[in-house]
Amino acid sequence: MKTIAKFRFRILFTISVLLFALSTQGLLFAANYPERGDPVAGARVWADNCSRCHNARDPADLRDDQWISTAFHMRMRAGLTGQQTRDVLTFMQDSNVPISVEPLVFAGGAAAKAAESADALSGSAVFAQTCIACHGSNGKGTVPGAPDFTRSDGPLSQSDETIFQHVKLGFKSPGSAMAMPPKGGNMSLTDNDIKAVIAFLRETFGQ
Amino acid sequence: MSTVDKSWRLCMLTCLLAIILPLSANADEKYDLLQQQVDALQQQLKQVQEALQQYQEDMSVKEGQVEQVVTQLKRDVAAAEEWKNPDTLIHMAGYADVGYSSVSGEDGSFGAGRFAPIFHYQYRDKVMLETELEFQLNDAGETNVEMEYMTIDYFLNDYVALVGGLFLSPVGQFRQNLHPSWINKFASAPLGFGHDGAAPTSEVGLQARGGFQLGGMYTNYSAYISNGPELNSTFEDGEYELEGISSGGKATDVDGKKVFGGRFGILPLPHLEIGISAATGKATVTVLEGGGTPHAALTEAEFSPVFGSLPKNVGDPEEGSDLHAEQARDYDVFGMDFVWGLGSFKLRGEYIKTKIGAATEGITASPGATWEAWYTQLSYLIPQTRIEPVIRYGDFNSPHASQDQTQWGLGINYLISSNVIAKLSYEFNDGESGTRADTDRFMFQLAYGF
Questions:
Q1: Does the distance separating the beta carbons of B159 and A55 come in below 8 Å?
Q2: Would you say residue A165 lies in a domain?
Q3: Is residue A45, in this structure, part of any structural domain at all?
Q4: Between residues 360 and 389 of chain B, which touch chain A (CB distance below 8 Å)?
Q5: A68·B157 Cβ contact <8 A
Q6: What's the whole-number mean pLDDT along residues B429-443?
Q7: Do A136 and A66 have their domain in common?
Q8: How far is B363 from chain A (nearest CA, A)?
Q9: How confident is the model over B331-347, as pLDDT tens digits?
Q10: Which of A54, A69, A143 lies at the smallest CB-CB distance from B89?
Q11: Band (A105; pLDDT cuts 50, 70, 90)
């Protein structure tokens, strides 16, 4: 009798799983492939999930097409949702552009002035949107390789021009096994946004 | 009128003519000159008009050519983009490692390690075929090839993927996510989490897995039905006892009874995951240690020293019916795991317990047995460097005292890049005296994830 009950439970369990799977089919299925995700959300997925198991891979390690299969492979391994997969895929694809060696012109003088530009996001908004996933709300870094902004010999000991170039072009800290992608992976950031966040970093974490 | 007046008038007329006539001649010359200039201008205008007409004709031809070139360029660009985004993607990933190991009291040796390519064939965002092969050079210099997993994944929607085939066991974390050498921070697997330890390694069956949000928290899950593992038995001291679990996925289900299991993980914080997993079903003895199945053992002379005292009523070897005499035993697994990352610190741990029930019938009837293992590991990537010390403690308990073992492991890794890691690891092993479980081991491993 007990065996029959156990068998029925197993059958019921299997049917439940299949019904759950089928009932949710098509609800949020990607209409187009590859449907573009949100790179800012993708940066957070990348920072929160990848390093749980392995060292986070540098976006520049793979081409766009290689990231597609890799992202879907990781969806299976890490139990990501479809939306998380699209977000992190978009982040990786946006972030794997080669780092330029051409110096940029840091026009505009003091970063604080630039932050007043009408079309610039506030520095705190840029930080909360793009940077916080890896650098953390305390600026000390949440993922291996992210530098500590609060150190006197940290990134903020450099000039605005240098930091601007590092943010805009991407940068690999000395000793770090991976690089920060250009614009932190958020290609929508403008020069003024970058200047604004530099001012925010200095105001919040500067010595 | 006087003669003087006439003469005066004639003189005046002559003078007037003398003045007017030259002026008239000069006006004619200017007219001719102007006429010539007008003619020349008309000629030039005509030439300009002709040139303009020619230019317009040329431009119209060039515009057509430009359109052709632009159209061709568009085609070329589209063709150049084709490889980036076809409906079917082919991709290879994987890992490999080489190294050196030395067991206390023995000579060390280099090892070719493993080459484990992972192939992906993906149709859009609907279907993915995944397979990992493992090539390994054995002590005799021969190459062993094993299929670690081979699945066809069907992405039903954003929250569910159906997986069919040979898949890594979702029970626990190490086997399904941490065993690749470029991910494992130690040069060896934790005690009991390697092949044929306490933890299941792979299953053949059907699985549903995915993730979803629960409140503000992400979760992940897997649930499966499979053929389940098979058991090894041995004959010692006049009786049978369970030797081990052959936990690699099997393409047949000798007892016809399926195993059900799965894992549920929650992420209450961004860098914290806690998982609980379980499996239940039936498993049957199919192998007697020393080689062969119970059926084969009865028909092969080489096992006579062990099986000389076997009961006589074990069935007809020619019909190969011995396996049917083996009783399917209860098979239950329970596991817990966690990982917590805090900046450069990474703390993880895992516990697994596998319990096999007793069998009162069959050739290998014997009491049940329990395998249990756990480990915890702490690693720290020193900021601004690529150096990562790691420490691990593990404990493995089996039904056989000779296999029980505890282990402290110390290691130091150098991250050549995020996916190429050089590892120096040392195991302080504590087991039954005189057994291999009691010997320490030094390992160097260079692992490459690709």
A1: no
A2: yes
A3: yes
A4: 381, 383-386
A5: no
A6: 92
A7: no
A8: 23
A9: 999 999 999 998 889 99
A10: A69
A11: low
Q: Which of B159, B225, B270 sits opposite A24 (nearest CB)?
A: B159
Question: Which chain B positions have a beta carbon within 8 Å of A83's beta carbon?
Answer: 158
Do A86 and A116 fall into the same domain? no
Q: Is B310 exposed, middle or buried (0-12, 13-18, 19+ CB in 10 A)?
A: middle
Domain count, chain A: 2
Is there a domain that residue A29 lies in?
Answer: no
Do residues A79 and A120 share a domain?
A: no
> Which two structure tokens, joined as six digits, stand for B223?
């649930």
In the predicted model, what is the mean pLDDT of residues A185-207?
89
Contact criterion met (CB below 8 Å) for B217 and B267: yes
CA distance A114 to chain B (A): 31
Give yes or no: residues A73 and A139 share one domain.
Answer: no
Whether B88 has its CB under 8 Å from any CB of chain A: the answer is no
**Each residue's pLDDT tens digit, A121-173:** 788 989 988 888 888 888 888 777 788 899 888 889 999 999 998 898 888 77
Instruction: Specify whether the CB–CB gap between B233 and B286 falls below 8 A.
Output: no
Answer whether residue A2 shows pLDDT above 70: no
Whether A173 and A120 map to the same domain: the answer is yes
Please indicate if any CB of chain A lies within 8 Å of the CB of B415.
yes
Per DSSP, the residues of B120-165 read EEEETTTEEEEEEEEEEE-TTSPEEEEEEEEEEEEE-SSS-EEEEE
Tell me whether residues B222 and A178 touch, CB distance under 8 A: no
Q: Which of B93, B160, B418 sits opposite A70 (nearest CB)?
A: B93
Same domain? For A144 and A175 the reply is yes
* Cβ-based contacts under 8 A for chains A and B: 170
* Residue whose tokens read 């050079």: B137
ipTM for the whole complex: 0.78
Closest listed residue to residue B342, CA positions, set B380, B375, B377? B380
> What Rg, from alpha-carbon coordinates, does chain B have?
45
Write out the residue range of the structural domain in which residue A66 sits: 35-94
Please check the confidence at residue A46 and state whether its pLDDT lies above 70: yes
Mean pLDDT of chain A: 80
pLDDT value at residue B288: 79
Instruction: Answer whether residue A172 is part of any domain.
Output: yes
Chain B, nearest residue to A77 by Cα: B177
